[in-house]
Amino acid sequence: MIIENSEVILSVRNLTADVDGNQILKGLNLEVKAGEIHAIMGPNGSGKSTFSKVLAGHPAYEVTGGEVIFQGQNLLEMEPEERAIAGIFLAFQYPIEIPGVSNLDFLRVAYNSRRKSQGLEEIDTFDFEDLIQEKLEIVKMNPSFLERSLNEGFSGGEKKRNEILQMALLEPKLGILDETDSGLDIDALKIVADGVNQLTSPENATILITHYQRLLNYIEPDFVHVMAEGRILTSGSKELALELEERGYDWVLEQEATEVAAR
Amino acid sequence: MTIQVSASTIPNPEELGLTAVPDRKDAYLTGLLTQCQAQDLQIIDPEIVALLSDVRDRASLWVNKLTIPTKRDEEWRFTDLSPLLQVNFQTPDKFDLPQSAVAAFILPEAPIRLVYVNGVYAPQLSAVADLPEGLVVSNLAGLPVTHRTKVGKYLAQQQGATEVFTALNTAGLTDAAVVWVSKNTVVETPIHLLFISTTGEVPVISQPRSLVVAEAGSKLSLIEHYVANVEGCPDIPVNHPYFTNQVTEIWVEENAQVNHTRNQREAGEAFHIGKSAIAQARNSRYTCNAISLGAKLSRHTLEVFQTGEGTETTLNGLTIIGGEQLADTHSAIALNHPNGITNQLHKCIVDDRAHAVFNGKVFVPQAAQLTNAGQLNRNLLLSPKARVDTKPQLEITADNVKCSHGATVSQLDAEEVFYLQSRGLNEADARNLLIEAFVAEIVNRIPVASLRQRLARCAACRTS
Predict the structure, then answer these.
(1) Could you give phi then psi for residue A168, rounded to 5 degrees?
(2) Do A106 and B418 touch (CB under 8 A)?
(3) Which of B106, B15, B94 is nearest to B61 (CA)?
(4) Of B272, B287, B308, which residue is a domain's last?
(5) pTM, 2 dp
(6) Which domain holds residue B429?
(7) Is residue B121 in a domain?
(8) Contacts with B441 from chain A: Cβ below 8 Å
């Protein structure tokens, strides 16, 4: 929801970033305020996923210019775990499988890392199990998943639900969902979207990175941005997504080319 | 009655026409042999004395024809034994340890135990009273009359007996830790075989020997444990070398099940050369959980011989080494009958300048149709100077089988570390959690909770 004069959570100015010496982000600007849901769409290779990784602090991506301010702090100076603790959460496009680490233990360790940094006492196993039971309902997940190794042998849909479960537990200020809809059948998509909708509030914000309009039928964005060539080319309301669905991305790229030529 | 020693297991070299092969006169090996042969036989039963004399003599003939292996021997290509040759080992004087010395090693889940100190039976430290019916846990001298007549069928009768260190152990054979489970007996608690070495000014050689017989339809869990009587953490070198050259023979008869956990925690300056030889009869199941954390130089040779069809063999291995340690595992599964299932997962974590060696052979001859064999060796290198030599070796001539193998050598996966960091764990915690998980996959297969906890703690301490 768009709220008048709400707090700016994320401010990205003229961000440029390289991976393996290739420039991927080429001057990206974005402002996200509390309560808002932003969808970033764009063709493959436009830099959408790179942007999400840069926000989360992936070491393979080198920021070469610009700034990212998260709730008044310079995000680019923070380690990935400091960003997580400050309230950034990235739901991975391909969640990592870690055999030997039980999902339950992992969730408790992650939750307690956050509590420790807030000066709170670590939560014990029993209280944590009560807490996690509540959160499981948000993504309609079977408790048996808690006993299994983290993401190991999970289906695509189960992995994505597990990401949203983590988000529910860690209650981030800014949730970034990287292609969360990819590889999901319609039932799983509805469950995931329903989970995300339950977690949005006037205090937090969400960035949805997606290739298709389909997800936006279930999670309604306040803004839609079209990304290509490492920048946001155009922004609009949710109707823009419908137009993209109908007309593809080419007209946005052509419009941009015309504008550049006219300058 | 005389006990027949089967000619096939320790053949007399002369019967093989090897009279022409001169004795090699490996001075170092001969020195060890002389030391070990001088050990007193503490047995009076004439049948057993006769049995021991016979196998000792045969093994001695072999030792005289053999030499300490060098890196030119294929089986020892990556393991340089020259540090061993620089130490002059002696057989130990009798050494009494107080009860308090074993307290740290006792496993509450395994109340029945045999304790050996420097290879010599320590009855006052052992706990073998009130054994359930159908179970014998004893040193060789204490074997009940009923079993004395049968022991010759098993003791020193496994294949592979002419390998030099096995032969050296047999040449000095004076006793064995015996675990014997009668037909259809299920032993509820694990049996603990605890071998303690003492360290001191004089470097000692001890040659523990174990014999495990699981008769048809029986079920047994065994913990074989090598430790040192040192203050504090045994991994911290105290500059007192010693040498353990041990052999364990396990017979898993028809439909029997043996779960064997082998925990090698020798002191940091120790040399440890171990052999586990297992014979698996029809429809039997054998599982080995072999953990190697200790010793400056260690070698575990694990050989499984299939003697009937439909066997199941599971080999789990975990080596965690650092500093200048070298740990070598050579396993071989020799199938020879149809419908066998084998699964092997061997993992190594190597830090500092340590060196891990793995060679895993699986033989699937024509007779072993419908075998299902899987082998995986995963290695985690924690330092740029750490080294692993790995060689999966499947030799398959049967045509209707399912066999797979693989080996990986890697550092911690940066994507996994990042994933955990993105959930709020700092880099050190993320790395530790991943190592813990790598360890847990093996350690969690050990059926004794207190041992799992100890190993997990040691692993965390060693790798953080």
Answers:
(1) -65, -35
(2) no
(3) B15
(4) B308
(5) 0.85
(6) 413-464
(7) yes
(8) 99-100
